[in-house]
Amino acid sequence: MSDYKPEKIEKKWQQKWDDDALYRAEVDWTKPKHYALTMLPYPSGDLHIGHWFAMTPSDARARYMRMKGYNVLFPMGFDAFGLPAENAAIQRNIHPATWTHANIERMRKQLKSMGAMFDWEREAVSSEPAYYKWTEWFFKQFYEADLAYRNEAVVNWSPTLQTVLANEQVIDGKDERTGQPVIQKMMAQWFFRYTRYADELLDFSKIDWPEPIKIMQTNWIGRSEGAKVTFKVETGDDEITVYTTRPDTLWGATFMVLAPEHPLVDKITTDAQRAQIDAYKEAAAKATEIERSAEDREKTGVFTGAYAINPVNEEKIPIWIADYVMITYGTGAIMAVPYGDQRDFEFARKFGLKIVAVVKPEGADSVPNPDEMTEAYAGSGVMVNSGAIDGTVHNGAKGRKSPAVDAAITYLEAQKIGEEAVNYRLRDWLISRQRYWGSPIPMIKTVDGTYETVPDGGLPVELPADVEMTGFGNPLANHEEFVHTVDSQGRPARRETDTMDTFMCSSWYFFRYLSPKYNDAPFDPEEAAYWLPVDVYTGGAEHATMHLLYTRWFNKAMRDLGMFDETIEIMHDNGRTPEEIMYGEPMLLLRNQGQVLGGERPGDYILATGRFEGDKLFADRVEVVNGPNAVPAGFEGVFGEITKRTESIIQVDMAGVNHVVEVVPDAEVIIPAIAGENNVNQLKHHLEIQRMSKSKGNVVNPDELVEKYGADVVRAYLMFGFDWTKGGPWDPSQVSGPQRWVHDVWTMVTAGAPNSGGGDPAINRHVERKVHQAIDGVSYSLERFSFNTAVSALMTLRNQMQAFIKTGQIGKDAWTNAMNVMLRLMAPITPHMAEELWAHLGFDYSIHQQEWPEYDAEKAKEDMVTLVVMVNGKPRGEEPVSPEIEKDEAIKIALANENAQRFIEGEPKKIIFIAGRKGQEPKVNIVV
RNA sequence: GGGGCAGUGGCGUAAGGGUAGCCGCGGCGGUCUUAAAAACCGCUACCUCCGGGUGUGUGGGUUCAAAUCCCACCUGCCCCACCA
């Protein structure tokens, strides 16, 4: 019966929508606006099922908002600069621009097959000169406002290739292409003053963002309160300043540790120690920061031979270098208090350094003997052996909220040996990349070594097209014509050859969408005044601490440089309060989707022995073995891969046959890979958890799915089959549910009304009720980005309608009205089919310009509901009652319930009535 | 190592502190068919003395009431600055 042909109707409607400019979003001050934004893709080659998973639900939400009466802008573009284009260039001898543009062409076509309401007139591509002219312009503005500066930073340097490598190009300290060693090298680079906005970035009060994102950003910024303390080096005039969050423990500082890169190291090192120090520095240069900061690593370090004087007690303390101190955090030097800091404690134990107890733990009778301690004590207590602050209390609070810290800071400031200080884990934003395929940094280095900006007329500094991509050296630095220029006084000068981090491009793309062809500024203030800020932003949570923090910084810097001034004026002229812009927050609401995963993880291979009961093995011994090829001779038990584990019940695949093994309590579990005593919880079962990636060959191509099922079914499946915020493994076997749903609706509508007359009024009333319950369910779900429950509510309506139609008693008008509403509810999810069936029923084009159905609670109401009678919180009986039942009446009925009475002895202690909220039954809980 | 998140039937998942498992997938039984597919109907957590009892990773706690809130643990996933 179903002659649903998605390949025909989808193309047809996409073409018509395009011809009619149905999704063109234009400024219209008479209508409320809604700027819906989904993260722009990197043009890697093919659209991934993950793009569909991120974008089609976002599209459904944008469509819903449009039907709710908003003027919706939902644009799309490409984040087109980046490393993969260069890799392609090197491997296939193709220009990065050619590769990128070809990919964009292909992906644009794939994106269009989604049937999303993208306004393609607004498309922006970050690698086009018309775009990166403004990326450069932003850099210039930031530089002139002292938000950009030059400083040294560590890079992965390949001596073989004479080039800087990305972290992902470095595998085990070696370049992935040549296998040659990579070293850590200091290089002068461009930074933005990210930390200047650290405190403002900690304020989330004006935005509705997911709690985890706010927590991650807060931790990432890592504000800490403490003090800076200056130590004098014993000989010479040198001073070493340290930052500490625990200045109260200064009396317990028994040595100092400098980062190996600390500038004073060479100067203070004694001749006797020099060889050792140099060797250590060289070794440290080879390790990455993540490796170095791993706390489970054995502590290493070398004594410099020099001593410092502890300013509070004049003690002479040795100065060491060690790689657990980072040059990038604080001052690159620490005072080591082995009593109170675990890392310092381990270091002191390893090298036999002195430990002095400075805190008497809360509730302890005496101060611990440092020689008997097995770990540092970082808790609260009373300060001891601490001179001026002896007896003050450290209560565990941060900064001056701890009395001991407060006393220490006051003392340090009075003695002029230190001062209160705030430190951030956040570091300034290093935007320099020694790469070709990025936006050039519009700076010129003059003959006297100073920098000046490229004048506005010189923007954009365009990337030269005739470069050779060999992977050796920096193509821009090797391009003579590009490098040689003149400065403002006509003297020969050199262009900056670093390009910008691509996060710079993606920090402002949603401004460019407003007016991608605008030539007088990054964006047209007339457009900005209407559309800004972004109302809803959707994308992956993996951007929590990078893109999503950079773009907030960028927006605040733009605000402070007056880039919104004109926009704000226009807002005023149109009666709009510009407060939202003044907050300096680019996106008011953020929601994250999860990831669609693919592939599999194998389970542990086990040998299990014990006692069989039928087919089930009660195992008293389980051993994890290497793989499927190790069956010992004469083995009796179960051997195979664990496919599933629920507590102590294990499903084992033994040569294709499933066996159930129950691991008895106290069974011996042996897992060689996990040291120490093992238990059943550590057994790994088969899981499908891997991320999709080309190298694993488990990427799902949406084009094939669209061809097979149609875009509407793929959209419906992606929205229905997952918790959108979680994502999950790809499982094509689950497509059939949504597929049946779409086909059923098609069949239902094309079959026409089952009854040409008025039908049974009671049935018609039921239909109306279920339709309104569906309006409520779908609206509530879409409002909350809960796409799976939206589809679920529509499937429920399908089931109910099928049952009503089967009676043959549904009237023509009731049926037509039900179909009319159902199609409008489906329009955001399955836009093509909804449009086709809408036209089939003779309603006015386009369904996407219709209003969202209005919910009427009266119409949705049931005549009778079930009163749940509970005793001590357990359901004991049910009684049919009116949904409006009052408390007293409900309690009376509940107490009269026969079954419930069996559980009530004597007088109830308490009776609680829970009113029947929307969609829920009233309840009475009788406590006895 | 640091940070974040998650754990519910065979599977994907639902549940606004208030009857755990909505909606699907799969499976089992049936109808129709020469047969199969499709479609349609029914069943589908465990135990039970048939009264009921148990059950949301484990162990505690708060509450009249906990999948939901709190604490600890176990397991897994994601992010960590030149991948985007």
Give the helices and strands, then pairings.
Layout: H1 6-19, E1 33-38, H2 49-67, E2 71-73, E3 77-78, H3 83-92, H4 96-112, E4 124-125, H5 129-144, E5 148-158, E6 163-165, E7 170-171, E8 174-175, E9 183-192, H6 198-201, H7 211-221, E10 223-233, E11 239-244, E12 255-258, H8 265-268, H9 271-286, H10 289-293, E13 302-309, E14 316-321, E15 333-336, H11 342-351, E16 359-361, E17 381-383, E18 393-394, H12 403-415, E19 418-424, E20 429-430, E21 432-433, E22 443-445, E23 451-453, H13 480-483, E24 484-486, E25 492-495, E26 499-500, H14 502-506, H15 509-512, H16 525-531, E27 536-540, H17 547-560, H18 565-573, H19 579-582, E28 590-593, E29 595-597, E30 605-613, E31 616-625, E32 638-646, E33 649-654, E34 657-670, H20 702-709, H21 711-720, E35 727-729, H22 736-751, H23 761-783, H24 787-807, H25 812-826, H26 831-840, H27 857-860, E36 865-871, E37 874-881, H28 887-896, H29 898-901, E38 910-914, E39 923-927
Parallel strand pairs: 1-2, 1-27, 3-4, 12-14, 27-28, 29-35, 31-34, 36-39
Antiparallel strand pairs: 5-6, 5-9, 7-8, 9-20, 10-11, 10-13, 10-19, 12-15, 13-14, 16-17, 17-18, 21-26, 22-23, 22-25, 24-25, 30-31, 30-32, 32-33, 33-34, 36-37, 38-39
The structure holds one RNA strand of 84 nucleotides.
What is this structure, in a nutshell?
Helix content is 33%, strand content 22%. It is built from 29 helices and 39 strands. Strand 32 and strand 33 (649-654) form a beta hairpin.
Which descriptors apply to this entry?
39 strands, RNA-binding, single chain, alpha+beta, seven-stranded mixed beta sheet, five-stranded mixed beta barrel, 928 residues
